[in-house]
């Protein structure tokens, strides 16, 4: 018995998923008769029936069900492998995986990816959002957008810029409580900020920040609390920019700025980088630096 060809197995999988030769042909971009011939040829080569056909439906036999379960993940991996080796500099294609934090993903990565996909429609992007550092090698991640030093190792890190943080509050809160005129007056307000990490500079050199009314490490939640009039929040300026432009938040104590945090784009030490990874890397460097 000869090994069933990839194309025939793909046709069988498409019919098994769609339970229809017509819909399978549409999904594969071919005609129904060709799909039928490939599946019949596959059945002949295996010496068994894989499908039960009727005028209205298509069902899997027990052997067909067993083959479908076994072959589906293998075909997916093979398709991915073929896409990877068919990546060309002139027309990059395939999948690129990028990771960053949820806040950076929503505010910085999403706008850049929207324009990237318009420029490179053949490149698919898989995004992994996580507050903790993701192991690029273990998780098969190509690029990472990270705050702070990229750490030890042979990774390639390019500085994108620096992030700034400040104090923000809703107009409704300021109308009710007034705006703090100095850092000392923050103690009399509803503070919304995370606990400073060990060794991290606080609001004022040599002094600990006031105890917040709500302490949370998730800046998106702090921003939502601030928008609802819950207090004065410490937020990265990139995260608050849209709300400030819309009038939902106002920057208070504008003369006070938190210590800038460097933003890096990190990639795995693969040389040369696949064209699809290089395309996204260069796009992100350009878009984020200009922004």
Structure description:
By secondary structure, the protein is an alpha/beta fold. The protein has three domains: 6-85, Orthogonal Bundle (Arc Repressor Mutant, subunit A); 94-155 and 262-290, Periplasmic binding protein-like II (D-Maltodextrin-Binding Protein, domain 2, 3-Layer(aba) Sandwich); 165-259, Periplasmic binding protein-like II (D-Maltodextrin-Binding Protein, domain 2), CATH 3.40.190.10. The protein has helices at 6-18, 21-28, 32-46, 62-85, 102-119, 136-139, 171-177, 219-227, 237-246, 275-290; strands at 51-53, 58-60, 94-100, 123-129, 143-147, 156-163, 165-169, 191-192, 232-236, 250-252, 261-267. The protein has a five-stranded mixed beta sheet with strand order 4-3-5-11-6. The protein has a four-stranded mixed beta sheet with strand order 8-9-7-10. It has a two-stranded antiparallel ribbon with strand order 1-2. Strand 1 (51-53) and strand 2 form a beta hairpin. Helix 2 (21-28) packs across helix 3 (32-46). The longest helix has 24 residues, at 62-85. The radius of gyration is 27 Å and the shape is elongated. The model has no long low-confidence stretch (mean pLDDT 87).
């Amino acid at each position: 018995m000869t090994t069933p060809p990839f194309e025939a197995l793909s046709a069988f999988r498409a019919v098994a998923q769609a339970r229809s030769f017509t819909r399978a042909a549409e999904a594969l971009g071919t005609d129904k008769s060709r799909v039928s011939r490939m599946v019949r040829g596959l059945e002949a080569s295996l010496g068994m029936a894989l499908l039960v056909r009727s005028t209205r439906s298509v069902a899997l036999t027990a052997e067909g069900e067993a083959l479908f379960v076994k072959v589906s993940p293998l075909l997916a991996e093979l398709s991915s492998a073929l896409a990877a080796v068919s990546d060309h500099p002139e027309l990059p294609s395939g999948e690129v995986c990028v990771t960053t934090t949820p806040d950076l993903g929503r505010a910085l990565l999403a706008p850049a990816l929207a324009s990237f996909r318009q420029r490179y429609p053949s490149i698919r992007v898989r995004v992994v959002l996580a507050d903790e550092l993701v192991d690029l090698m273990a998780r098969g991640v190509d690029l990472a957008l990270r705050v702070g030093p990229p750490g030890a190792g042979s990774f390639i890190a390019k500085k994108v810029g620096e992030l700034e943080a400040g104090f923000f509050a809703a107009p409704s809160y300021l109308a009710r409580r007034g705006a703090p005129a100095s850092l000392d007056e923050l103690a009399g307000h509803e503070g919304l900020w995370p606990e400073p990490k060990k060794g991290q500079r606080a609001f004022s050199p040599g002094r600990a920040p006031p105890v917040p009314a709500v302490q949370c490490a998730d800046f998106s939640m702090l921003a939502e609390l601030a928008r609802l009039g819950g207090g004065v929040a410490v937020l990265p300026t990139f995260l608050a920019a849209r709300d400030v432009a819309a009038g939902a938040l106002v920057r208070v104590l504008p003369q006070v700025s938190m210590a800038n945090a460097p933003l890096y784009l990190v990639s795995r030490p693969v040389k040369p980088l696949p064209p699809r990874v290089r395309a996204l890397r260069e796009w992100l460097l350009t878009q984020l630096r200009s922004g």
